[in-house]
């Protein structure tokens, strides 16, 4: 039998021999996998920093340097010719380059806001950074994969650290509860994903998108498989009816982790959803996806109306935004095509990462300064004491609501115009109406900030925090830049 | 095709024979002194009687997790070992050596991390 195994592996080796060495060490492969390799190397360095005495002092430097090197590698792929590597399972082009930049930005924002947040767990911050970077590497892998199995590796590389990070504050019951909930549901979603992949494989004979024969797509096995894969991805991006975990987990998890989850995870899953939908979903699924998108928007927006906790409010708003993005996925089956949908989703997500990242980040800051959950009541009168912070928070709310001159508006505009071009006019109109509903709760936050006096017993923190303020300012600048001068970004995507 | 399985059959036979032979020998020549402990159901590291609701040290969990991790990773070494010969024949000796070198390095790093953090110490 062993002889048979060697025989079998020899035949695989024969196939692989055709330039395997050349492919692995080629410039193209190194360029395509550069950001992922840089992050992986950074992870090893962070482990090393925990082992070698004295090296712990360099931890933050290693973290920043790794993000920087990965960013430089990603920058090199933007504008470079598209590179397919590893037998068409992984791709690097301008879009994946921008996605990678976005993940790095999300990681950096969450990490910066997380400085000085942890108190009882500050001895374990090395592990915190390590897990965060692993999750970031997972996101990069997810965005570049054009193969169901490669994506799964990325998904788990992202999810497993996030389960741990959600429960990072072991002494807080809510944090442990969030970790457990996320883990149990996430494990279930992973199983669903694998089952779906197995069905797709049974129906098409391959897991690689490029190798799928379009004639196989209509079969019952493939449709069932695609539905299961969609369900597990919908879980990750919190689309109805797989959104139930979001408010609880976002509220319970440590705030920097929530920032990271809300921006990075969602971006990574959508980065893969677009090519996956283009490869697996039949044209007839367009209207179904549009209906799910509308229901998700409705559930998110009406759910957010009654929230008082700011983290929960933003969690429901995140559900609504996932619904809007799903509209772009639905529109992809029509005339505009996957490339236009990818551009719209990427722009929307870029605006969302800086908007939600900034908003969650400021919640992180207020939470760690007061030691209490941040509610609508507790931010009343913030504008009088901390005008800069209040202005930034208000700007983020306006961008989330899609007010012109912000990145959020242009993102919404791109998605809805895509839907209109794809003959989904009615759907787009209902979506716009639902966006108006959303303004009600975003404005409630602004009213609390500016027009209501400070609550007795809930004083707003008066001390400034330079680093958080600076990051919030940078996020605000990005939100405005994407809203006012978006041409440089949109042009680089063509 | 079936002939390939003869060595496995032989191995099963030898293992079975070894076990039976040794049991028979100790049954024939061994001294038989019975006590309560010997008559109990065999259970590794546990009291087989009494309430099952006892508190276990969290150390067991940690050691079990570490064991599973390194155990699963050792499985990958087998796959490598089986295909290494064939890949070496294809002039890819250095490639496979580098690859497993990186893999083992990451494992060693993980082990060093566990060691440094005191994960291997029982009395803490």
Structure, described:
- Chain A has 20 helices and 2 strands.
- Chain A has 494 residues and is mainly alpha-helical.
- Chain A has 2 domains: 259 residues, no CATH class; 212 residues, no CATH class.
- By secondary structure, chain B is mostly helical.
- Chain B has a domain of 73 residues.
- In chain B, helix 3 packs antiparallel against helix 4.
- In chain B, 2% of the residues are buried.
- The chains are: A mainly alpha (494), B mainly alpha (124).
- Chains A and B meet through helix 1, helix 2 and helix 3 of A and helix 3 and helix 4 of B.
Spell out the key features of this protein.
heterodimer, A: about 500 residues, mainly alpha, 20 helices, 2 strands, globular, disordered N terminus, B: about 120 residues, 4 helices, flat
For the termini of chain B, the CA-CA separation is 55 Å
- What is the helix tally of chain A? 20
Radius of gyration of chain B: 23 Å
The biggest sheet of chain A, with number of strands, parallel, antiparallel or mixed sense and barrel status, is: 2 strands, antiparallel
Number of strands of chain A: 2
Overall, the morphology of chain A is: globular
Question: How would you concisely characterize the structure shown here?
Answer:
Chain A is an all-alpha fold and 494 residues long. Chain A is built from 20 helices and two strands. The longest helix of chain A is centred in the C-terminal third of the chain and has 34 residues.
List the helices and strands and how they pair.
The complex is a heterodimer of chains A (494) and B (124).
Chain A: H1 2-17, H2 20-24, H3 27-51, H4 59-77, E1 83-85, E2 90-92, H5 94-114, H6 125-144, H7 148-166, H8 173-204, H9 220-237, H10 245-252, H11 255-280, H12 285-305, H13 310-331, H14 337-370, H15 382-385, H16 387-401, H17 407-421, H18 425-450, H19 466-484, H20 487-492
Antiparallel strand pairs in A: 1-2
Helix pairs in contact in A: 3-4, 3-6, 4-5, 5-6, 5-11, 5-14, 6-7, 6-11, 7-8, 7-11, 8-9, 8-10, 9-11, 10-11, 10-13, 11-13, 11-14, 12-13, 12-18, 13-14, 13-17, 13-18, 14-16, 14-17, 14-19, 16-18, 16-19, 17-18, 17-19
Chain B: H1 6-29, H2 36-39, H3 58-89, H4 93-116
Helix pairs in contact in B: 3-4
């Amino acid at each position: 039998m062993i002889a048979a195994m060697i025989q079998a592996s020899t035949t695989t080796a024969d196939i692989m021999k055709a330039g395997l060495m050349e492919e692995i060490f080629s410039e193209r492969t190194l360029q395509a996998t550069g950001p992922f390799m840089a992050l992986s190397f950074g992870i090893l360095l962070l482990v090393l920093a925990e082992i070698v005495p004295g090296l712990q002092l360099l931890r933050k430097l290693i973290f920043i340097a790794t993000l920087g090197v990965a960013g430089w590698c990603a920058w090199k792929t933007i504008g470079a010719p598209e590179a397919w590597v590893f037998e068409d399972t992984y791709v690097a082009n301008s879009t994946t380059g921008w996605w990678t930049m976005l993940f790095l930005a999300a990681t950096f924002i969450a990490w910066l806001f997380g400085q000085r947040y942890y108190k009882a767990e500050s001895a374990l911050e090395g592990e915190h950074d390590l897990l965060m970077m692993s999750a970031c590497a997972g996101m990069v892998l997810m965005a570049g994969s054009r193969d169901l199995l490669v994506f799964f590796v990325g998904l788990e590389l992202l999810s497993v650290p996030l389960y741990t990070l959600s429960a990072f504050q072991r002494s807080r019951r809510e944090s442990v509860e969030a970790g457990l909930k996320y883990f149990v549901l996430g494990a279930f979603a992973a199983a669903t994903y694998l089952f779906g992949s197995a069905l797709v494989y049974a129906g098409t004979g391959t897991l690689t998108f490029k190798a799928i024969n379009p004639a196989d797509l209509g079969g019952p096995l493939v449709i069932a498989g695609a539905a299961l894969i969609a369900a597990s991805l919908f879980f990750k991006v919190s689309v109805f009816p797989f959104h139930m975990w979001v408010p609880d987990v976002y509220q319970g998890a440590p705030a920097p982790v929530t920032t990271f989850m809300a921006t990075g995870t969602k971006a990574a899953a959508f980065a893969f959803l677009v090519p996956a939908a283009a490869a697996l979903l039949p044209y007839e699924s367009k209207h179904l996806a549009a209906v799910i998108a509308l229901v998700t928007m409705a559930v998110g927006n009406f759910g957010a109306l009654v929230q008082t906790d700011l983290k929960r409010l933003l969690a429901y708003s995140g559900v609504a935004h996932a619904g809007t993005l799903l509209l772009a996925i639905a529109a992809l089956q029509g005339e505009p095509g996957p490339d236009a949908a990818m551009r719209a989703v990427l722009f929307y997500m870029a605006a969302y990462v800086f908007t939600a990242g900034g908003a969650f980040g400021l919640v992180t800051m207020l939470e760690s300064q007061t030691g209490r959950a941040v509610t609508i009541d507790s931010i009343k009168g913030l504008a009088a004491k901390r005008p800069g912070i209040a202005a930034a928070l208000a700007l983020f709310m306006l961008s989330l609501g899609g007010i012109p001159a912000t990145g959020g508006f242009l993102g919404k505009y791109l998605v809805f115009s895509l839907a209109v071009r794809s003959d989904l006019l009615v759907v787009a109109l209902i979506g716009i109406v639902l966006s108006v509903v959303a303004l009600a709760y975003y404005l409630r936050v602004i009213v609390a900030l500016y027009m209501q006096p400070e609550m007795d017993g809930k004083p707003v923190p008066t001390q400034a925090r330079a680093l958080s303020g600076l990051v919030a300012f940078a996020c605000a600048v990005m939100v405005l830049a994407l809203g006012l001068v978006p041409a440089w970004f949109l042009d680089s995507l063509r | 095709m079936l002939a390939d399985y003869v060595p496995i059959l032989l191995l099963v036979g030898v293992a079975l024979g070894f076990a039976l032979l040794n049991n028979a020998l100790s049954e024939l020549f061994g001294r038989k002194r019975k006590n309560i402990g010997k008559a109990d159901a065999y259970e590794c590291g546990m009291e087989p009687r009494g309430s099952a609701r006892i508190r276990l040290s969290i150390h067991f969990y940690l050691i079990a997790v570490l064991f599973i991790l390194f155990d699963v990773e050792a499985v990958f070494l087998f796959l490598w070992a089986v295909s290494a010969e064939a890949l070496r024949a294809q002039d890819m000796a250095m490639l496979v050596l580098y690859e497993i070198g990186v893999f083992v390095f990451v494992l060693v790093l993980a082990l060093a991390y566990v060691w440094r953090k005191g994960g291997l110490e029982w009395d803490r």
